[in-house]
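Researcher: Re-running this chain for the archive, since the previous output was lost when a drive failed. Same request as before.
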Amino acid sequence: MLMPSIFGENLIDNFFDLPFNSTYRREDCELMKTDIRDLGEDYEIIMNLPGVKKENVRAELKDGYLTIQATTNSAKDEQDAKGRYIRRERYSGSCSRNFYVGEGVKQEDIKARFEDGTLKLMIPKKEKKPEVEQKKYITIE
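Model: Regenerated structure tokens:
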């Protein structure tokens, strides 16, 4: 016999949940957690995107800012033996993160790989070189 699951893990979870279907939910806290490592010549960005498919992840470089955007759609349906709804849930949303990587970094310099819900990016360090001041002399005749 299928038991109704109107309460999440336990009754207390729903009792202390945020009101009015807030956009912040406990299970969404893991989305887009990011680690950034300095590897000397490169930076490595490791971002958790659980439940997101590769085709729903976009990375864009514009004006020195790397923007990573992820979208997800999910549906959970539970029915009893007669097909009556016990619970129906849907979730659709997107989120994004921005990182300043420098104006010297080009799109083709960044290497990205998505595997098992984890996005890994390798970004080369492009430090701005100080401009050497050129002395300009006036010709004296």
